[in-house]
Structure formats: structure tokens, C-alpha cells
Amino acid sequence: xxxxxxxxxxxxxxxxxxxxxxxxxxxxxxxxxxxxxxxxxxxxxxxxxxxxxxxxxxxxxxxxxxxxxxxxxxxxxxxxxxxxxxxxxxxxxxxxxxxxxxxxxxxxxxxxxxxxxxxxxxxxxxxxxxxxxxxxxxxxxxxxxxxxxxxxxxxxxxxxxxxxxxxxxxxxxxxxxxxxxxxxxxxxxxxxxxxxxxxxxxxxxxxxxxxx
Amino acid sequence: xxxxxxxxxxxxxxxxxxxxxxxxxxxxxxxxxxxxxxxxxxxxxxxxxxxxxxxxxxxxxxxxxxxxxxxxxxxxxxxxxxxxxxxxxxxxxxxxxxxxxxxxxxxxxxxxxxxxxxxxxxxxxxxxxxxxxxxxxxxxxxxxxxxxxxxxxxxxxxxxxxxxxxxxxxxxxxxxxxxxxxxxxxxxxxxxxxxxxxxxxxxxxxxxxxxxxxxxxxxxxxx
Lengths: 212, 223
Known about the structure:
The structure holds two protein chains of two kinds. By secondary structure, chain A is mainly alpha-helical. Chain A has one domain (3-210): Ferritin (Up-down Bundle), CATH 1.20.1260.10. Chain A has seven helices and no strands. In chain A, helix 2 packs antiparallel against helix 7 (200-207). Chain A is globular. Chain B has seven helices and no strands. Chain B has helices at 19-39, 54-57, 68-93, 98-124, 142-163, 170-193, 210-217. In chain B, helix 5 runs antiparallel to helix 6 (170-193). Chain B is globular. Classes of the chains: A mainly alpha, B mainly alpha.
């Protein structure tokens, strides 16, 4: 199994520990940390990713800050898209709807992190190299699909039930965004039966090129 | 048919105007944030019965399907059987052609994959997979079928979201999440085909409890 996947989509092949009824959350967290550490050590990663991984201790606040980083990215991307994507009609409306959702995600995650006594990450500066509608749609699809996989990868490590519920309520919306963008692209809204999960390290490496 | 409260997905089947969902999409902002913060332990200002948090409801409501995670998986399996049967009926009905038919066929194939995977998962855990229910769906017109599909998918996504806090095993949770987001994709795609909002609950999807979901699908289970 690739080191980038914490949970494989081929459920028929999933093996369960036979010495216990389930895999405890601490085991998953440890495995996740080891996987991230292996990736971190093996690859050269940029300063943002290096810092993010160094700060990441696996706590709920850390996970929420990881999510917040992604939401900052999407929020900025859609804000810029209002001018840059040269969209009209349905796509123009969709950009507004999605952008509003991402803004709300930023607000809610920031509030939650503070509520939990944590410090929200500072909003990074982003650079999205694209031009025109086709370029926008391509990037949008990548960001939304990656967002789904990021949340699906991180969620099993969340300790608090309430934070898990919140993450779940967000990832479903990201999946909805992904489907809508894919339809605009003339692509399958739901390409596979099981959305893959990605490790935090892999996700951060994927978005690093867009962070200044 | 069970009377639905204003938030119930089933109200769409009962013929409520779809404009209500568009209204929810526009005004859902502040209430959605309140629901999110409520889920994170602040004061619960939400009144919807579908928005209950794990702490409030106190149980998965899936015990009749089996103990613990097996019960939750079998509950999910039952819903997946329903969705698979529904899509199969729709494909057979001849109501759709072209790209709409292709979409419906694909969604049906994905639900069938969910059935296979969940069945295998339950067996692996030493449980007995839930049986395939006998089902009957109203298939009057392309539009009413699309509306029913959207209702079922939106409800299915809410069902998975509703179970997430009760799942004990990390691998079971991973599996449920990987399906949950796919149901969200299906729901959004069908909503789009209908000209409805892709996010009827706004920026934060609402969970649905097992009791409500099962009540909603009861009319489609026969015999």
C-alpha cells in the first residue's frame, strides 16, 4: 500500500486486527505519525511544509489548523476567481456559492481552534498560476478533490467526537463542491466508489507550490 | 407516509416545493455556523431534529442491525441495498437516456460496490450481513425520479455523517468516510441536474439520525 494512503478505498481487502475488535485511535495516530515522518525524512519538502509538519503533533488543534490552511487556500482561490476565472452564468454563481462556503469554513475553524485553546495558523500568501476559465476549473477540481481526501485522511485521527462531527460536516460540503466543479469540467462528478484518503504530508506537499 | 418536519429530506417526496431548499441555501449561513459551533461544544442553538450531536442523542440507533460497529455497518448496508435497487429500477424504467442515464448507471454501480464492500467488512468482523430488503420505488416520470434520487442521496450522506461519532474502529470510520463523501458527490450532482442548490444545508452538512433515516425509507421497503 502506498505510504500516501492511510485508509485504502478497496474495503474488501481491509484486514482487521484479530487480537482486538478494532484498531485503537492511538495506533492509527502512531501509524499516521510514522508515515508522515517517513515521507518527511525521505523527501525534500519546502519550508512551509517542513514547518507545518514540525508543528504537527497530531492533536485536534493541529488537525484543525491543517484543515484551516486548506480552507484559507480555497477561500483565497475562489475570491480571486471572481475576477480571474472569467466565468459567467452557472459557473459564476457556483464560484460565489463555493467561495461563501469556504469563507464560512475559515471562520468556523478559526473559532473552534480558539475555543479549544489553540492558536489558529496565520493566513498564508498564495499564488495560483492559471489563466482563464479552463485553467481555473482544472485547479478548482484538484483543490476540491484533494480537500476531500485530506479531511478523510485526517478525520480518523481526531480525538473529540464533536470535532469529528464538524470535520464530517465540512468534508461532505467539499465533496459536493468537487462534484459540481467536475460537472462544469465535463468530468465524472463521482469518479470512484470510495473517495481516497491522503496523509497530511502528502496533502501539504501537493499544495506547497501554491503557498508563497 | 411519515409526516416530515421542515428539515426532513422526505418532505421532498411528499411534494413540497423545491424552492424551499433554495431558500435554505441562501439563508443557511448563520444557522449553519451556529450548528457547527454547537457541534463543537458551545451552546446548542439549533432546533432541527436532524442536527442532534452525538452527546445529545446518546446512541447510534442501529442496535437492531447488530452490536456496535457491525450494527452501524449493517445499517449502512441496508441503505446501500436500497440505493442499488433504486438505481437498478431506474435504469430498467427507460425514463432516461444519454448522459443522464450514464450518470444514473454510474451511481448505481458505485452503490453496488458499497454493498459488496460493506458485506465483506461485516463478515470480516464476524457479523452476519443484513439481508437485501424487498423494495418498491415510485417511477412516474423522469423529473419525479430525479427528485427521489436526490432525496435518497442527500439523506444517505446525512445518514453516514450521523453515524460518524458512534463508530469505534478507525478502519470502520475510514471506510464510512470514504463512502460518505461519495454520497455527497452523488447528492450534489443530482441537485445540479434538478437546478437545485448543491449544498441545501449551506456550508456545513447536517447529520441525520438512524431513526429518522429509517422512517424516511420505510415506505420503499415492502413485504
